[in-house]
Amino acid sequence: MPSPIAHSVSGYVLAKFLPKKLSKDYASHWWNLGNFYPVFVAIFPDFDFLPQLITGERFHRGITHTLIFAIGFSLIVGWLISYFRKSSFKKILLFTFIIYSSHLLLDLLTAGGSGVQLLWPLTDTFFKSTISVFPAVHHSRGVFDLSHFIFIAWELSYSVLIVSILWLWNNCCSSKFSE
Ligand SMILES: [Zn+2]
User: Fold this and answer.
1) Rounded (10°) CA dihedral 85, 7, 94, 82
2) Is residue 46 part of a domain?
3) How much distance in Å is there from the Cα of 104 to the middle of ligand 1?
4) How far does the centroid of ligand 1 lie from the alpha carbon of residue 25, in Å?
5) What pLDDT score was predicted for residue 84?
């Protein structure tokens, strides 16, 4: 699974590429936490390590990595923000769902592991892409294994690449499209 590095940078960049009319409702007034919201949503599914730490039960990559949870999370958060902000529920719902789904997609595109139970509770099947963008993480090898450096270097390269694409888009193309 990608680390919070790839997830948060992906959420940040994806939010910048989404239409402004979709994101303006979360990004102004007192909820103006800048780019924190999409980053928070993009890494949220991996907060399931917390109940795992507390209870010792296996939670990681469980229910928070299912489409049904993504929909439920987007509905609740979308309703809360739109209620307090008096803004469009549908826009925040859609925005949140797209960013949340980016996490599931990145996890699907990771080598190693058994994948994610995307369609739980309809089916217990673990889904995983045959094409991997991210290398596997070997937790069992300890903190200082060489494979972790390869993994982190790969994620940093990926992050630099997508931020560069965003920068190029902002500096040469987006104005042409909006003209
Ligand atoms: Zn995850």
Assistant:
1) -10
2) yes
3) 7
4) 26
5) 85
Give pLDDT tens digits for 62-79: 899 999 999 999 999 999
Indicate the residue type of 163: V
- Residue 127 identity (one-letter amino acid): F
As a whole number of angstroms, the distance between CA 12 and CA 109 comes to 19
For residue 179, tell me if it sits in a domain.
no
Place of tokens 């769902």: 97
Residue 27's domain spans which residues?
Answer: 4-174
What is the rounded distance in angstroms from the CA atom of residue 170 to the CA atom of residue 143?
A: 38
Q: How far is the CA of 177 from the centre of ligand 1 (A)?
A: 34
CA of 35 to the centre of ligand 1 (A): 20
What local confidence, expressed as pLDDT, does residue 2 receive? 80
Q: Which pLDDT value is given to residue 79?
A: 93
Q: Which residues partner with 127 through β-bridges? A: 116
| Distance from Cα 5 to the centre of ligand 1, integer Å | 12
Q: Which residues of the chain have a pLDDT value below 50?
A: 30-31
Structural domain total, the chain:
1
